[in-house]
Amino acid sequence: MNDFICNKLKRLTPYEPGINDCAIHLDANESCMELTDEMKRKIGEKMLDLHFNRYPDPLATEVCELFGARYNVPARFITAGNGSDELISLLFGVFVEQGEKVLITEPDFSMYKIYCSTYECKPVILNKNDDFSFSPDEMIELANKEKVRLIIFSNPCNPTGQGISRDDVLKIVENSHCLVVVDEAYMDFWDQSVIDCAPAAKNLIVLRTCSKIGFAAGRLGFAIANSELTDYFRSAKSPYNVNSLTQAAASVFLGEKDYLPGAIDAIKRSRDRLYKALKKLQERYNDKMHVYETHTNFVLVRFNDSKDVCEKLKAFGISVRLISGCLRITAGTEAENRTLIGTLEKILEHN
Ligand SMILES: *Cc1c(COP(=O)(O)O)cnc(C)c1O
């Protein structure tokens, strides 16, 4: 059987989405806010008007216009994707040739490396410092020295929660002789976006997603870039990549004026509460844990034995993500955060 499987697939380390039967899921950076019944009813009404026998709008025009209106970018610079994951995959397929180099930082979103390997590109790794910071100058120098075709990094970063300033990102874009892809999956929770610069920049692609702000089920992401890059992107993507159900639901999700700002604020408040509670725990167990600062909807915590803490949390019905020797904990509802903190207290007391 294995003779039909090429070597690049045999080398692949698969992405493992956190599937488990825990009652409390704080492992996938989803929003802790479920859509309101009123929003769901409006989406239901849209479904009644949908032509299920017809293909979707290939350019998801209405959705791109609504996203563009919300983020102040004209729709002609926007490509919609089946999650930003599809767009990341497409980037490697469209803008990089087999054997060419791609600069990736470590740690960063694990899919970059996976697509790098399936598209047979060569990763050039910039290792972050022990505190998970990195120097933009070092990134520029490495990219230019190695003649990479593309740089990709998340800002703010999954899994570290940290980010670099807008000025630093623009410095990288201006001084690197390659495409720079800034994955702003978590930028709804921070204020250092460069999305406004993408339409006029020669070599910048910004990625956004609706997954972290309450629409993970819909699978909808966006790439923002100048019109030449956008044309290539659109002509290379699979034609009906965003299905009609998602487009209809997203027209409500993105279109309801007052819904999203409130939802994003609520997620940020939950994140702040979780961060403060973890910091307080750190004051008591300073020798056992370290909490990193965050600009996202999760908090990264290093425990002396993170794997052990992860397994014990799971035994109590709470799943978090073990990554880079730390636990990445998504901000949950108030009750979920409280249960998590209480359970961690119990675990640390006995460890
Ligand atoms: C979650 C995440 C994505 C994937 O988003 P989808 O739109 O759900 O595919 C992309 N990049 C980063 C850094 C993420 O954390």
UniProtKB/TrEMBL annotation:
Output the InterPro entries linked to this UniProt entry: Aminotransferase_I/II_large, HisP_aminotrans, PyrdxlP-dep_Trfase, PyrdxlP-dep_Trfase_major, PyrdxlP-dep_Trfase_small
Q: Read off the PANTHER family from this record.
A: HISTIDINOL-PHOSPHATE AMINOTRANSFERASE, HISTIDINOL-PHOSPHATE AMINOTRANSFERASE-RELATED
GO MF annotation: an example:
histidinol-phosphate transaminase activity
Please state every residue range assigned to the domain named Aminotransferase class I/classII large.
Answer: 25-342
Q: Which UniProt keywords apply?
A: Amino-acid biosynthesis, Aminotransferase, Histidine biosynthesis, Pyridoxal phosphate, Transferase
- Give me the gene this protein comes from: hisC
* SUPFAM superfamilies tied to this protein: PLP-dependent transferases
Enzyme Commission number(s) of this protein: 2.6.1.9
Cofactor(s) needed by this chain: pyridoxal 5'-phosphate
Subunit: Homodimer.
Instruction: Extract one GO BP annotation from the record.
Output: L-histidine biosynthetic process
Where N6-(pyridoxal phosphate)lysine occurs along the chain?
K212
According to UniProt, this protein's pathway is:
Amino-acid biosynthesis; L-histidine biosynthesis; L-histidine from 5-phospho-alpha-D-ribose 1-diphosphate: step 7/9
- Which family does the record claim for this protein? Belongs to the class-II pyridoxal-phosphate-dependent aminotransferase family. Histidinol-phosphate aminotransferase subfamily.
- Quickly give the catalysed reaction: L-histidinol phosphate + 2-oxoglutarate = 3-(imidazol-4-yl)-2-oxopropyl phosphate + L-glutamate
* Protein name stated in the entry: Histidinol-phosphate aminotransferase
